[in-house]
Amino acid sequence: MKVRYAADRERYKRMTTAELRGSFLIDGLFPPGAVELLYCEVERAVVGSAVPLAEPLKLEAGRELAAAYFCERREVGVLNLGGPGRVKVDRQRFEVGRLDCLYIGRGAKEVIFESDSADVPAQFFLLSYPAAAAYPTTRATRADAAEVKLGSPAEANQRTIRKYIHPGGIKSSQLVMGFTQLAPGSVWNTMPAHTHERRTEVYLYFDVEPGATVFHLMGAPDETRHLTVRDGEAVISPMWSIHSGVGTKAYSFCWGMGGENQDFDDMDRVAIGDLR
Hints:
Layout: E1 2-4, H1 9-12, H2 17-24, E2 25-26, E3 35-40, E4 46-50, E5 57-58, E6 74-80, E7 85-89, E8 92-96, E9 101-104, E10 111-115, E11 124-130, E12 138-140, E13 146-150, E14 159-165, E15 176-182, E16 188-189, E17 194-195, E18 199-206, E19 214-220, E20 223-229, E21 234-237, E22 242-247, E23 252-259, E24 268-269
Parallel strand pairs: 1-3
Antiparallel strand pairs: 2-21, 3-4, 4-11, 5-10, 6-9, 6-11, 7-8, 7-10, 9-12, 13-14, 14-15, 15-23, 16-22, 17-24, 18-21, 18-23, 19-20, 19-22
């Protein structure tokens, strides 16, 4: 498991592009036939992927967690971005199709990922936070998600938000998770921007076409920077940073949060005129 240490907002002001990418961008996710995990100092999140081919893949704790098994003290959100597959959690088997979500609760001892076909493998995105309580492992299909439509063609930000793990949906200890799809012709997400002083967030960008890119905006509202992000790359967003973006074409992203509360609307909004 890789380990990533956080940069504070003062060091951030002096960082080069390479340093920003090294601190906040997560690339190298979704290698075929492997589990890839990054342990982050921010909220002690673990961000990762599992792409099983002909052989199943097992989620291991690693010495970094000092645990007998991965979910000994943790919960995990799983979103499948690839072909159909399944996740076996202890004695239960969950079929997880494309854009289906699985929540794995604290105390699950064995987690195994499988694909229906090695030619079109499942691509499981993983986001995990420490859990103070145990909740049942639960699957939700795309049709089960709470759907919210926002934006307009005039503002180039028409999008659909689908919430999976949240107080009104799948129950969790602190994890909140879902994904957003932009409509064709729309390119802006989360603008006007906001911060979460009580939570941190991870964005995983997907369905970014070859040759396209997303410019992810980050940083304190009065001193913003950007990262160029490709398909299958993620960004760590600390509590003092905005998280917004604009793409050269429409795209999608999975968002996940952990921290003080699970209130989706707990945002410190920033007026567009106050951005610098």
